[in-house]
Amino acid sequence: MQAVAGLPPKARASFAWGLCVRGTYAPSHLARDITTSRSFTRPSRVLARFSTEGGPPNAADTERCSLRGFSFRLGSEGQRSDIFTQSAPVHFARTLDQMLAFLQARMPEQDGKPDMARVEAFSAANPETRRQASYLAAHPPPASLARTTYWGVHAFPATNAMGETRFIKFKVAPVGEADGPTVDAVAARSTGFLCGDLESRIAARDVRFSVMALLGRPADPVMDVTIRWPDEDGHEAVRLGTIVITGIESNAACDGSAFDPANLAEGISHPPDEMFAARRAAYAISQTRRR
Ligand code: HEM
Prior knowledge:
Oligomer: single chain
Strand content: 15-25%
CATH topology: Catalase HpII,  Chain A, domain 1
CATH superfamily: Catalase core domain
Bound molecules: protoporphyrin IX containing FE
Number of domains: 1
Helix content: 25-40%
């Protein structure tokens, strides 16, 4: 991941550019119907990071992949959860072997660019790896990170007080006005623009997200992160709570207490797919290297 993105050694291997922020989480009265997790059923402070994929950090590159990230930590001492979301509902690889091959196909050649014939051949042989890019192409992101909708992608088993466990997917949707203007190809892909927009919206207390649980149905596939559930947008969605972003934090605050996908308070369990298992190891390796 690092080599493909051309990042300096201390940068994150993924979602390298980011803005660290703080805020609050307030649960809805429905959260308890879905999970006993005290991260989601109690009010707490939030540490969060908005990010964009691609590198190097701070470069304004109109060719850059437009995937955005939003990771957040909520809950109190001993009951914290780290949730990672991105601006597409699917990942670009189904298995770890496929992810490695996807990246290898994109390794830069001597001229610093990937061999596009090799990339095309890989995509043709692995059509599911096109789905994330197709989604992003069909859904250009809004101009603001604060108006973007983010997905947790994996299916998480959630257990409620009745002892019932069902799969949920996280969807983090901006509260308020509809999505607003889509990205202007040049202006809004510059990280300076994204940063300035976020700062002024935070000052106006205008950065609020509903944390939604999309409720799985019995036959929904839970092992493949490259596909959405059938009629996923038509699934029942329960608002677990609301995040309000209240201030900018130093990037050191997010770098220092690195988010870890394995960090989930009791009541939400680890997704069963192999990509999630791999993430637990990959983030720890990346965090060790960049320190
Ligand atoms: C499937 C859905 C995925 C989502 C939604 C996701 C999301 C994210 C986000 C938002 C970040 C930035 C974290 C931050 O702000 O500190 C991140 C970082 C990262 N991701 Fe993922 N990711 C996914 C899959 C994967 C997979 C499958 C791997 C590798 C096996 C991976 C490897 C990494 C690494 C190494 C980092 C950098 C971690 C660090 O240095 O702190 N991700 N991811």
